[in-house]
Every structure is written in structure tokens, then in C-alpha cells.
Design brief:
Blueprint: E1 2-10, E2 23-32, E3 37-41, H1 48-55, E4 63-68, E5 71-72, H2 78-88, E6 89-93, H3 104-114, H4 122-132, H5 148-160, E7 166-170, H6 178-195, E8 198-203, H7 206-209, E9 214-219, E10 222-225
Helix pairs in contact: 3-4, 3-5, 4-5, 5-6
The structure holds adenosine-5'-diphosphate and magnesium ion.
Adenosine-5'-diphosphate is lined by residues 11, 24, 42, 44-50.
Length: 233
Amino acid sequence: MLTLANVSKHYAKHDEKGAAPRNVLRGVNLEVGAGECVAIMGESGAGKSTLLNLAAGLDRPDAGQIVFDGHDLNTLDDDAATLQRREKMGFVFQAFHVLPNLSAAQNVALPLLLNGMRAKDVPPRVSVVLHAVGLGGREHALPRELSGGELQRVAIARALVHRPRLVLADEPTGNLDHDTAMRVLALLRELAQQNGAGVLLATHSAAVAAGADRVLRLTPEGLESYAPGAGGA
Ligand code: ADP
Ligand code: MG
């Protein structure tokens, strides 16, 4: 459903005169199947966010191919890439931009409205998904009235409400305590699996990654499979 083949990416250096360009990603190969949860581990700066941005079609690789749901993202223009993202992808971020002046329900409704769902069909779908993340009855709560774990559950509801094919999660539990992080992650996996959505999860935490079907480690040498206990944090 998502395939990265031999993907490379570097950023031009502005600050280091004469420094050789550093490849953030070098020859990365990755496949995420429907309903599969793949975790990318790596130190800060390893290129995890870069990889997710490429998978989202928000940025383009220097080399290699990225195929999502049968479309080569390189061949799509920006509008077509935006449409793919809006209809078929969901996003969860560490500092998720749950909009502060919108209620939980209004935040979750956004992807449906952006995708043109009829207004009368929106509240029932939002309600089902908020119940699924344990926030039934909190439809009208404002973000400032919710805990960190609850906010992240709003973010998960918002990422899944339009039934995307792929969820891209960048450090989705980064600001949560361990137990809350584990519960939020389990919920994300469960909902994604119910929807047959793939999950590509970036994290620096081995504990968080351990919940995935497959764990890969991003290093300067590339993307390697990661066996828990084989070193690393
Ligand atoms: P991670 O998410 O694993 O922490 P990133 O993908 O954010 O890593 O960053 C990888 C490397 O690329 C870092 O060295 C970072 O400074 C650099 N980088 C990321 N985005 C940009 C950018 N837009 N311009 C220049 N350098 C960038
Ligand atoms: Mg990052």
C-alpha cells in the first residue's frame, strides 16, 4: 500500500561553508501493508520526520520511488498529492495541532468537512469515532479542558475519522507518560487495524516501537531491521 524504493534525500546546507551535503536518507527501502503497523526508530536527527514527509508527499526525494495506493507520488502534481493526502492519509504528531478554539467534535470533524462529506452525516460519524477513543460524551470539550492523553486521543480520532488507508504518526506519544503512551498507541493500532489502515510510526522510544508489527531502525547507513535487545535505547 506504501512502498519506498531506494529513496534518498539530502538537505542543502546553508550554515556550513564548503561542507559536503549530508544524505539524511540513503537508499531507503520500505513497505507498509494494509492493516500493518511499522515503526521507524532512530535518534533525534536520524531522518524519521523527513521519511514521513516524503511518504506524505509533502516533500520529494532526490532519488528513488514512492508509491502510495497505486500512485507514484513523484508523478503527481501538488494538487493531486494534496488530494491523496486529504482523502487517504491521517496524521498524528507529538505536538498535535488540535485547534484550541474548536471543540473535540469540531476538531475531529475537520477531515470530513475537507473531504466534502454532507454536513448532516458528519456528527454521527464523529460521535462513533469519539466513542471509539473513549471520549464519548466529551464532544463539546475544548482542548484546554482535556489532558495530554485525551488530546492525543482527539488527534487519533481526527487521523482516523475519514477512514484513511495510511496513518502517519510522528512521535505520537512523545509528550505522554509511559502508561498513557502505551494506551494511546494501542488504541491507534486497534482503530487502524479495524479500518484496514496501515500505520507508519516514527519514534525514538523502543518501548513504543515494540508495539508495532515490524520495527526498523534508521541510521546513517540506511534502514535496517531492528531486533529488540540488540542495542539502542
Ligand atoms: P528526526 O525526525 O529523526 O529527528 P529529521 O528528519 O527531522 O530527523 O531531520 C534529519 C536531519 O535533517 C537533521 O539533521 C535535520 O537538521 C535536517 N533537516 C530536517 N529538515 C530540514 C530542512 N527543512 N532543511 C535543512 N535541514 C533539515
Ligand atoms: Mg522528527
